[in-house]
Amino acid sequence: MRSTICLLPGLALLAGIAAAPAPVRAETYHTCTGFIDSLPATINTQGTWCLRHDLSTSIASGSAITVATNNVTIDCNDFKIGGLAAGADTLANGIVANNRFNVTVRHCNVRGFLVGIRTLGGGGHLIERNRVDANTLNGMRVAVGPGSTVRGNLVVDTGGAGPGVLAGEATGIYAGHGVHIIDNTISGVAPTPESGSATAYGIYTETNGDGTVIENRIQGLAAAGAGSAHGIWNNNSGRTFVSSNKLKGDGATNSVGVRCTNIQATAHDNAIAGFATGVLNCLSSSNIVNPN
Fold first, then answer.
1. Which among 16, 102, 121, 256 has most CB atoms closer than 10 A?
2. Which class for 275: exposed (0-12), middle (13-18), buried (19 or more C-beta within 10 A)?
3. Quick check: is 86 in a domain?
4. Is 226 helix (H, G, I), strand (E, B) or coil?
């Protein structure tokens, strides 16, 4: 593998981001603008910012990495961004971009935060090929992100917030306002009960009529008490297409495999097993539904 020196532009960045020496591993190092070497860190310069070793932080609020400009790629090269040291009461997020455009996050292992990867506003984001696990509220949250895509991610063991810290529900992937959610695996969503109940969502979309939910795999949803488990829940769904997903529930009362707001939204060619209701409110076609 060829090694290439990545040079920093002549701009001062905040602490935690260092100029790049000659890299020794990872296929994307030759594209790096610079490296993130400690947390928390803020990215103020456009380009590709990479990890070259595992990083962790004990912050209990704020963000481990904040993207503060447009046209930024965070490439972790499969290294870890860890926040487990803050504990179950953490309010910290892993990677955050608010009101930014064209942010890409790839090859990151983000664990132990309130939300692993979070964008709000802007649009044109790409969140791909990440592993997010042990995040307490959402594995990923791409809200108000028109033209964005969340694809090829592994979202594992979401839930477990401390009592009173947004307890009562947890969601593997939350997205809305024009986000395409494609080819992700969500395994294990177990929210902390609040007043004896908790609701688990594999994928939750909000006003996502310009988006799609396609070829995802969801299992291990663990509701509690009067709460329920839902595979794909589309709120104010509009003309969302929900297609070719594989959903496995445990037969819990009131659980729903795929839910739409009305028949503007289409659910077709999904394989749904172990939910009390397979498809609710959608225009439904060619779905395989097994309540057992």
1. 256
2. buried
3. yes
4. coil
| DSSP-assigned letters across all residues of 121-175 | S-B--EEES-EEES-SSEEEEEES-TTEEEES-EEEEE--PPTTSSTTEEEEEEE
| Distance, CA of 116 to CA of 108 (rounded, Å) | 10
Find the CATH number of the domain harbouring 80.
2.160.20.10
**Full domain range(s) for residue 191:** 39-290
Count of the separate structural domains present in the chain: 1
The SS3 of residue 233 is: strand
Q: Is residue 99 part of a domain?
A: yes
Contact 217, 186 (CB under 8 A): yes
Q: How far apart are CA 106 and CA 104, in angstroms?
A: 6
Q: What DSSP state is assigned to residue 282?
A: S
* Distance from C-alpha of 93 to C-alpha of 138, rounded to nearest angstrom: 10
How far is residue 31 from each of residues 78, 90, 116, measured CA to CA in Å? 16, 34, 24
Residue with the two structure tokens 């070259």: 52
**Segment 141-180, tens digit of pLDDT:** 999 889 999 999 999 999 998 877 777 899 999 999 999 9
| Average pLDDT value for the chain | 91
Does residue 249 lie within any of the structural domains?
A: yes
- 89 pLDDT tier (thresholds 50, 70, 90): very high
Separation CA 56–CA 164 (nearest Å): 25
Going by pLDDT thresholds of 50, 70 and 90, the confidence category of residue 188 is very high
Q: Is residue 10 included in any domain, yes or no?
A: no
> What pLDDT is stored for residue 28 in this prediction?
60
How many Cα atoms sit within 13 Å of 196 on the Cβ side?
2
